[in-house]
Structures are given as structure tokens and as C-alpha cells.
Amino acid sequence: MPNNKPRIAVDAMGGDFGPHVVVPGALHAARAGKAEVILVGDEAAIAAQLARYDVKGLPVSIVHASQVVEMEEKPTEALRRKKDSSIQVACNLVRDGAADGVISAGHSGATLACAMFTIGRAPGVDRPAIATFMPTEKSHCVIIDVGANVDCKPFHLLQFGVMASVLAETMLGRPNPAVALLSNGEESGKGNLLVKETFDLLRLSSLNFVGNIEGRDLFTGNVDVVVCDGFVGNVVVKQAEGLASSLGRLLKGELRRGFFGKIGTMLALNALKRFSRLVDYAEYGGAPLLGLKGICLICHGASNSKAMSSAVRMAARFVEMEANDHLSEAVAKNIDLAGTRRQAANDQS
């Protein structure tokens, strides 16, 4: 088995469709030469899917895991009772150096908890955070945090901005990315206490901080990184997903009305396809959990094979670009600033 490619552990049992979708998606990435894939889960179920494809010579292996974390289970209880779950075994591979990264479309809470406690935090990082790529009028921007941390301190948001800035630079090719803070107004005095104090920290940091941004400006593409706490970020992302789906259905309904609508549909077909790709989460595959010692991508539960393939590719690129090393360096540049505010917060508590 070749070892010169990034080694990505894939939770083959995760998601709404399990091995039926995960395995072909992972194989597609392996066939493209992007990564060495380690499929983790029930060996018999995975082997049955592999038997449907020509895998000769592909850098693909199986690591057996006898348990699966079900969607209705509480993350901490499941991880305590199911030591041999597919997500736990996959994270163990990263912790032990047998894999460079892990991706899962399974229980997002369990994936988050397992990655944080098993793989561990990167040096200097207080709280790992989930980032996601949001389509805009120009390209994509990074939003962080979108669900890992609902209660935050200003120094947490500072670190989120630092980590997302590295992500935008390495994965989107944005040198010196513009970082904005999500607030209820552009002025520096706007926002709640968390936002106001975070504004001061970001202004003093080494980031290219451009100030506050309002919700209506998220999709203009004028900034590369948007920082917020996990509660606000999750609401924003879910609202955007719902809006995109609803607009798509409304547009299809209008274009199918009458003869001229159908003609318009045919004329606009290429543009509609490009728009569909822009808002399709499968293009990136997953949301990276930044701030760990290894790579972890949390994928949508309804991920299709394309999304899983994209997730493997993204994880592999993280490794190739040495994104974690750059992230640690960036955090170190701002560690004194964050540490001062952390100590002040501890003194007040």
C-alpha cells in the first residue's frame, strides 16, 4: 500500500446511506489519486460494496469497527458505551498516526466530541471551531463558527478568525484574506458585549480585519472570512440552506409555467447549472473542524457520493498544504493577545 499520499480515514457507516454511498465516493477520490483511503466500519458491509467495483491497485483498505453511533444517541453517552464505533476507531487512527485526517457524515455531535477528545486540540487553541464555505456573488467566503461553540468569549472569536483566515488562504487561495465580524451594524460600536470586545481584539490582531459586516452583506463576496459565535453561525447557515432550497423550487415552478417559461428555461439552462453548482454543498463535501492536531471534516448527513469524494479531496489538500502547521503558526502570532484577554476573563469569573 503506497504511503506517499495523504491517508484519510473515512467513517464508512456514517450518513443517511452508509457504505452504499460513502464507499463509491471514497473510491472516486482514491481513483483520482488524491488520497490513500482507509474505510472504517463493518468489514463485511464495506467489502460487499467494494466487490461492486474494480479496486485493483487502488490505495484502499478496511479497518473493522463493530459499532455505529446512531443519530438519536447522545454524543457523550455513545462515545462512552461504544468504544469500537466507526467514528471512534477512525479518530483513533488519526491520534495514533495511522491516518492524517478523518471525515464522517454520521452523528455530527459524536464526530465533534470524538475528534476533540481523541485527536486533541492543536497547540495554543482553546476551542476548535467548525468552518464552512458560503457561496457569494463573487465566489465563496468562510464562516466560522457554525455550531461547535454556542457560548464564547472574545478571545475564542479571535482564534476562530485566525484559523479561518488560514483556511481561506490555503484552501481558497486568498492572500491576506479580509476578515469581518458579524454584527447588527457596520459601525464599531454596534453589537452586543461579545461583539464589541471581539472587535477590539480583532483590530489589534495580525489579521486583515476590515470591521463589522451585517447579515445582508454576507453574500456580496466583499470579505473572505466572517467571524461569529456558533449559535449565530449555525442559524445563518441553516437559514441560507433553507433559502437556497426554497428559491430553487420557486424558480423551477415559475419557469415551468406556460410555453414561454419553458423556452426561457432552455435558454437559461447553462446558467441554472452553474448556479446549482455554486450553492451545492457537495462541491466542498464537508465543514472542517479547525484547531485539532489532525484533520477532521464533518459532512452533511444526506451527503451523496460526490460530497464524500469532495470531502476526501479536501482533507487530502489540507494535509498537502500543511494547513495545520500554518494554523498553529498563526495562532502563535496572536497568543499573547488572546492570553491576556483569557486571563482577564478568568479573573472576572
Question: Mind sketching the topology for me?
Answer:
Layout: E1 7-11, H1 19-31, E2 36-41, H2 43-50, E3 60-64, H3 75-81, H4 86-95, E4 101-104, H5 108-119, E5 129-135, E6 140-144, H6 154-171, E7 178-182, H7 193-204, E8 208-213, E9 225-227, H8 230-255, H9 258-267, H10 269-279, E10 286-290, E11 295-299, H11 305-320, H12 323-333, H13 335-348
Parallel strand pairs: 1-2, 1-4, 2-3, 4-11, 6-9, 7-8, 7-9
Antiparallel strand pairs: 5-6, 5-10, 10-11
Helix pairs in contact: 1-2, 1-11, 3-5, 4-5, 6-7, 6-12, 6-13
Family: Belongs to the PlsX family.
InterPro entries: FA_synthesis, Phospholipid_synth_PlsX-like
Main location: cytoplasm
H-E string = EHEHEHHEHEEHEHEEHHHEEHHH
CATH class descriptor name of the largest domain? Alpha Beta
Number of domains: 2
Outline the biggest β-sheet: 11 strands, mixed
What is the strand content? 15-25%
Task: Please tell me the CATH architecture of the largest domain by its name.
Answer: 3-Layer(aba) Sandwich
What is the number of helices?
13
Taking the alpha carbons of the first and last residues, their distance comes to: 53 Å
Low-pLDDT parts are none
Total beta-strand segments: 11
Average residue pLDDT = 86
Main location: cytoplasm
Pathway: Lipid metabolism; phospholipid metabolism
GO molecular function: phosphate:acyl-[acyl carrier protein] acyltransferase activity
Subcellular location: Cytoplasm
